[in-house]
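Run log, item B.
One chain of 90 residues. Sequence copied directly from the ordering sheet:
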Amino acid sequence: MISKPTLNQNPTRIKRALISVFDKTGVIELAKSLNELGVEILSTGGTAKTLRDTDIPVIDVSNYTQFPEIMDGRVKTINPLVGGGILGLR
């Protein structure tokens, strides 16, 4: 028997989102929607610039983590502060 999906009556509120994309298509709309919901946005280099250029508040990942980008910008988000949040159990 397959049950119908139901709307979660007690959804978990998202407080923070990490947005880092190569293809910026749709990223402004996504970030605006998240911002309107009160979600704090963390981002990297070019994505952060794109969001700032459209007046969307954004925190640079390197400022949040207090770790600079390494390997010519290829490694931006892998460190204990961000990795722990991504890999943590709920």
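Observations after the first pass:
- Strands lie at 16-19, 40-43, 59-60.
- The radius of gyration is 16 Å.
Flagged for discussion on Thursday.
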